[in-house]
Amino acid sequence: MNIKGAARETWTWLDDRLGVQAVMDFLKHKPIPRNRHTPWMYTGSLVLVFFGIQVLTGIMLAFYYRPTLEEANKSVGEIMTKVPLGWIIRSVHSWSATIMIAIVFIHLLGIWVLKSYRKPREMTWMSGVLLLVFTLGFGFTGYLLPWDALSLAATKVGTDIPRSIPLIGAWGTRFLRGGEDISGDTLSRFFSFHVCVLPLCLLAALALHVYLIQKLGMSLPVGADEEAETRRAIPFWPNFVYREAIVWLVFIGALITLAVFLPPTLGKAADLMAPAPEGIKPEWYFLFLFQTLKIFPAKILFITGDTVAVLLILLAAALFFFLPLIDNKPAGRKGKIITACAFLLVIFAVVMSVWSLQTPSKPEADKIVAAPQNIKESTAIFIFLGWIWLSVAVLTYLLRLKIKETDRLLDVGYFSSERR
Amino acid sequence: MRLKHSLFTRRQFLNGLLGGWLGGLAGLFLYPVLKFIFPPEREPEQVLLPLADYGSLEAGAIKNFAWGSKPGMLKKTAGGELLALVGVCTHLDCNVAYLPDKKKFFCACHEGWYDENGINIGGPPPKPLRRLAVTTEGENLVIRPEGAA
């Protein structure tokens, strides 16, 4: 028997048991609408790509990271200076987190403005809000792990916020910290959240989210002509995947370039007794919450300002989660007020973030700045980057050829003839 | 013989090029990952043992030192020579013990035996214990891998 025959036989054997062909057939017939809103549809899979990168680089970092009071900062320093290419892996993890969260926000905004959450997709939206919460949880817990002055201060503030919630707040703070104060136990706990609890929660919510998207199909823009859209739509596999692949490649190239040229630094090990560093700020995606908390006065009437702020934020989060139930109009109506709310929220977040950046932060002395260890390493990295961008260019060209080819096949009805 | 038709279609060629290039790119990414996962060996280039502590060894006696993260053993032979060994069994990496009454090294994991010079004499060990070079430089004994300058 020749190799081709053997491969086909193995494939048949596997397919009989796994049913891969059924999945492929489904994806071949899953229509992706082709209209001026299609670019929003690249954001979901892009988030997934960056999540995958986070998982891989996270596992690698955990090989060398040690989550204890004495060793946490030291081990991150060793990853940056001793482990071969460790500084790039850490940089990729950090940049990929930032880009992932940015795309999550864009994804969310797109769904919001297009009203894709309306019936029957309410639960897709809600599972998406859960994914957002878990993603921000990853950002928050991961920020403590390098255990420098910045991460300690951020965690002190972040874990103190629940305390302002009446009745259950103090319990929440103790749960997050593993005691009244931040200690080595907080670090172990955050590590456990970051690498065990949150990944499991996120995968569960993700499974529901992706299942619902497959079950319900892609939403059409408000007021679309359904028949025309069906005629124009392209199948997910292969026509749409080839288009998405171009976006993935460009973003991966950009990610690695950013990671090489702008690696994150590492401050000195956190001192539990030291005062908070001047002008500290959280990561950019928490800036608007940070500034909101800052502008509330100490007392509003007879309630502490913090409590009012936190309750308002919780109320906003609840409204946000239940948005599909609030805006339960028939899918045909535009919902201009809801769109206006989205833009107001964006303006609010941008204004608050820019405002908070007006306080200058003091650059920390004695921090570890990552860089290639020698001329050999930096040369290799530049050649590597060159190859990546060359590959992005070549692959984009080839993928465009494939897109033309598959679109032509679609136009002549090649795919529909195999429809069963 | 000249073929009138190409042996493969444009589509196969394009698929092969695309798949091949993607595979190559994945391979390119694998290199830094492997570099990171397998850091270079960190065997010490040399270990200094102060003569004040290690110089006054009696014949037949043994003193331990750290050879990186492995146990090193410094022994004075009956002839008065200094012998440095890595106290790790050559069978399956267990640390060995020196039994002074028997004048033998013993590995408890699979009952391996070495004589007082670290030569394998019984049980599964395939090779003698690894030897290190000992020189005296000023105030210190210098232990280096054998063969290193």
The quaternary organization reads as: heterodimer
Secondary structure: helix percent of chain B: 10-25%
- The residue-averaged pLDDT of chain B reads 88
Overall number of domains of chain A: 2
Please, could you describe this protein's structure?
The complex is a heterodimer of chains A (420) and B (149). Chain A has 17 helices and four strands. Chain A has 420 residues and is mainly alpha-helical. Chain A has two domains: 38-224 and 242-268 and 283-358 and 367-371, Cytochrome Bc1 Complex, Chain C, CATH 1.20.810.10; 374-420. Chain A has a two-stranded antiparallel sheet. A two-stranded antiparallel ribbon of chain A has the order 3-4. In chain A, strand 3 (299-300) and strand 4 form a beta hairpin. The longest helix of chain A is centred in the last third of the chain and has 37 residues, at 375-411. Chain A starts with a helix and ends with a helix. Chain B folds into two domains: 8-40; 47-145, Rieske Iron-sulfur Protein (3-layer Sandwich). In chain B, 21% of the residues lie in helices and 32% in strands. Chain B has a six-stranded antiparallel beta sheet with strand order 1-10-9-4-3-2. In chain B, strands 5-6-7-8 form a four-stranded antiparallel beta sheet, with no helix packed on it. The longest helix of chain B is centred in the N-terminal third of the chain and has 28 residues, at 10-37. Chain B is elongated. In chain B, 16% of the residues are buried. The model of chain B has no long low-confidence stretch (mean pLDDT 88). Chain A binds chain B through residues 56, 60, 63, 82-86, 88-89, 384, 387-388, 391, 394-395, 398-399, 401-402, 405, and chain B through 11, 14-15, 17-18, 21-22, 24-25, 28, 32-33, 35-37, 39-40.
Entry keywords:
heterodimer; A: 420 residues; mainly alpha; Cytochrome Bc1 Complex, Chain C; two-stranded antiparallel ribbon; two-stranded antiparallel sheet; globular; B: 149 residues; alpha+beta; Rieske Iron-sulfur Protein; 2 domains; six-stranded antiparallel sheet; four-stranded antiparallel sheet; 2 helices; 10 strands
